[in-house]
Design brief:
- The structure is a single chain.
- By secondary structure, the protein is mainly alpha-helical.
- The chain has one domain: Four Helix Bundle (Hemerythrin (Met), subunit A).
- 79% of the residues lie in helices and 0% in strands.
- The chain contains eight helices and no strands.
- Helix 3 packs antiparallel against helix 4 and helix 3 crosses helix 6.
- The chain is globular, with a radius of gyration of 20 Å.
Length: 243
């Protein structure tokens, strides 16, 4: 099974139509979620009035930040154990896109936080600092790979960092339960089910699906580019050896 999913040729054929489908569906879901969130749903005075509409971008970005690093760590683990080249290609593709969504999470969180909590940033807040550390993990992963003098060394060093850094994901999730935080408790994924009214929850989930699909499309596009670049590099290397 692993060999089937790790085959670059099969991946290219599958992503030929899957990536455009992800882009189209993702754009439609995000557009619907933003339209509902910014113009249709009523403002929530408890959450600060109209500023709560930021959550239709912030919350999906926060989920994607954690999900993307989890995917990075899983892909790194698969490469580290089974040495499947496509897993390393996926990890390399995920990192910069995950960093963008993490930056989006941090920036929209600050926009939400200023009128809600009276501050753009709180340095002793566990949730804010753990997400900031996640952003630095993405940057560190990319910098570490770029510093290596061979692809194999880059893949190994990056995989180790990604797997070790995965301990930050549960810290982000449970930081508001374990430490004092300005951030409110979870209101969507809880033991007792969602605490959010359906009028807000539905467009939020649709927006999150859209962000996920867009993320998947971007990752597939970067993977396709990386596969072709590695093929070109191999062909160039063979030409040099033949001279």
């Amino acid at each position: 099974m692993w060999s089937y999913f790790a085959n670059p040729h099969k991946f290219l054929r599958l992503s030929d139509w899957l990536a455009p489908a992800f882009y189209a569906l993702g754009a439609a879901c995000i557009a619907y979620g933003l339209w509902q969130g910014l113009w249709v749903v009523p403002k929530d005075e408890y959450q600060g009035g109209d500023i709560m509409r930021v959550m239709f971008v912030h919350v999906p970005a926060a989920w994607l930040a954690m999900a993307s690093y989890s995917a990075l760590a899983i892909a790194s683990f698969v490469w580290f154990v089974w040495r499947h080249e496509l897993a390393d290609i996926a990890a390399k593709a995920i990192a910069p896109i995950g960093a963008v969504w993490t930056a989006m999470c941090l920036s929209t969180g600050s926009i939400w936080g200023k009128p809600t909590w009276g501050t753009w940033w709180q340095w002793d807040d566990a949730r804010m600092m753990s997400v900031l550390f996640l952003f630095f993990l993405f940057l560190g992963y990319m910098a570490l790979r770029a510093a290596m003098d061979s692809r194999q060394k880059a893949a190994r060093a990056g995989a180790i960092l990604a797997m070790v850094g995965a301990v930050n994901i549960p810290l982000i999730k449970f930081s508001v339960d374990l430490f004092t935080s300005l951030h409110q408790d979870a209101s969507v994924i809880t033991a007792d089910g969602p605490k959010m009214a359906a009028v807000y929850l539905t467009p939020l989930l649709v927006s999150a699906i859209g962000h996920s699909l867009l993320f998947g499309g971007l990752v597939m596009t970067r993977m396709r580019t990386e596969i072709r670049q590695r093929r070109i590099a191999r062909l160039h290397s063979r030409e040099l050896e033949a001279l």
